[in-house]
């Protein structure tokens, strides 16, 4: 979904495969570390520094083992703040220590990151924003464009206090995080986690006709319900899908369309990403493999994973694996000082 062409305002499809990653990047697929597994994880910082495969396997296996165990229910404490333009936004917070901030995708509520709140708050201070018009935040008339949304992230970080944070954006949240980085620089960024959206790398796929905006205007409920159901590859409780779809329709329909039509060229997102010199974790589904290859080759401190069997909400479909990867990124990659 998104605007014309590549639709960088929402989820972005991209087909095709590329040549293997450079030798400096270790490869990992759904079945573990394999150059043929279809996945890749960039070298540890600095780019090109080798990491022992056996040590990484042991670390990931241990992390998955811990994070896959039943977790104590941890919905997060709801907190509120006002943005610099006076809009009241909500965020969920759980845990203590160094901070990781999640920004959800198009029209999605903060609670979609419940698996990450439960698992990661054991060691980290986990914060998840309800962006303006989403979740339980205020629904203003305006501000549904990248500069304001980036400023909202900046205002949230001011609310949280000083120190570096890892910013994790999913889908549209990728662009909101990169909008923040473009306006504020990387001074407060310990690392970026960018989840399943284009970052403007490579050749854009050819534009395809779409009735999505028309369908939103004419039969919004059915269109949003279909979109939400399509985010997952694993079975989800119908009540869960129903609740997410209902919450995804809080903002005016034209505002939701503006979110998918960010007025930025695709190169803006690429340049914003590479201006950040902190470590980057790029977690994507196979449609973005080409861009994952490019990030692994071009960013100085990349960690890249392909989630072969997951849907767009890969952090729900493959929560233990994603949480283990985030644990590794937070504890071993992020530049906290």
Describe it for me?
- It is a single chain.
- This protein has one domain (53-333): 3-Layer(aba) Sandwich (Rossmann fold), CATH 3.40.50.
- The protein contains twelve helices and eight strands.
- It has an eight-stranded mixed β-sheet, sandwiched between helices.
- Helix 3 (146-160) crosses helix 4.
- 36% of the residues lie in helices and 14% in strands.
- With 337 residues, the protein is of the alpha/beta class.
Describe the secondary structure blueprint for this structure.
Elements: H1 53-67, E1 77-82, E2 88-94, E3 99-103, H2 114-120, E4 125-130, H3 146-160, E5 165-170, H4 172-184, E6 189-195, H5 212-218, H6 220-229, H7 238-247, H8 253-259, H9 266-275, E7 280-284, H10 289-298, E8 302-306, H11 314-317, H12 319-333
Parallel strand pairs: 3-4, 3-5, 5-6, 6-7, 7-8
Antiparallel strand pairs: 1-2, 2-4
Helix pairs in contact: 1-12, 2-12, 3-4, 4-9, 5-6, 6-7
Features:
single chain; 337 residues; alpha/beta; Rossmann fold; 12 helices; 8 strands; disordered N terminus
Summarize it:
The chain is an alpha/beta fold. The chain has twelve helices and eight strands.
Structural class: alpha/beta
- What is the first-to-last residue Cα distance? 37 Å
How much strand?
5-15%
Element string (H = helix, E = strand): HEEEHEHEHEHHHHHEHEHH
Shape: globular
Output the CATH homologous superfamily.
Alpha/Beta hydrolase fold, catalytic domain
- How does the major sheet shape up? 8 strands, mixed
Q: CATH class, please?
A: Alpha Beta
| Percent range of helical residues | 25-40%
How are strands sequenced across the largest beta sheet?
1-2-4-3-5-6-7-8
Query: What is the CATH topology descriptor?
Result: Rossmann fold
């Amino acid at each position: 979904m998104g605007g014309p062409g590549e639709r960088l305002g929402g989820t972005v499809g991209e087909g095709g495969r590329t040549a293997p990653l450079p030798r400096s990047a270790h490869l990992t697929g759904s079945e573990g570390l394999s150059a043929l597994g279809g996945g890749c994880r960039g070298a540890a910082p600095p780019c090109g520094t080798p990491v022992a495969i056996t040590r990484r396997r042991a670390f990931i296996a241990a992390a998955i083992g811990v994070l896959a165990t039943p977790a104590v229910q941890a919905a997060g404490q709801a907190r509120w703040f006002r943005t610099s333009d006076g809009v009241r936004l909500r965020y969920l917070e759980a845990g203590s220590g160094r901070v990781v901030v999640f920004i959800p995708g198009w029209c999605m509520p903060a609670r979609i990151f419940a698996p990450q709140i439960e698992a990661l708050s054991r060691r980290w201070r986990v914060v998840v924003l309800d962006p303006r018009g989403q979740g339980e935040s205020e629904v203003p008339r305006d501000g549904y464009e990248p500069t304001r949304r980036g400023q909202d992230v900046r205002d949230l970080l001011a609310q949280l206090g000083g120190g570096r944070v890892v910013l994790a954006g999913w889908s549209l949240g990728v662009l909101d995080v990169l909008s923040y980085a473009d306006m504020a620089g990387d001074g407060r960024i310990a690392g970026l986690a960018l989840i399943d959206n284009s970052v403007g790398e490579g050749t854009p796929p050819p534009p395809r006709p779409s009735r999505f905006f028309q369908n939103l205007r004419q039969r919004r409920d059915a269109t949003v319900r279909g979109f939400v159901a399509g985010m997952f590859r694993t079975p989800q409780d119908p009540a869960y899908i129903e609740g997410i779809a209902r919450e995804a329709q809080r903002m005016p329909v034209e505002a939701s369309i503006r979110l998918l039509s960010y007025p930025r060229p695709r190169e803006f997102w690429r340049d914003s990403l590479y201006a950040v010199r902190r470590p980057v974790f790029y977690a994507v589904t196979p449609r973005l493999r080409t861009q994952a290859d490019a990030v692994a080759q071009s960013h100085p401190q990349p960690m890249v994973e392909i989630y072969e069997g997951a849907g767009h909400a890969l952090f729900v479909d493959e929560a233990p694996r994603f949480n283990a990867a985030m644990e590794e990124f937070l504890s071993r990659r992020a530049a906290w000082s």
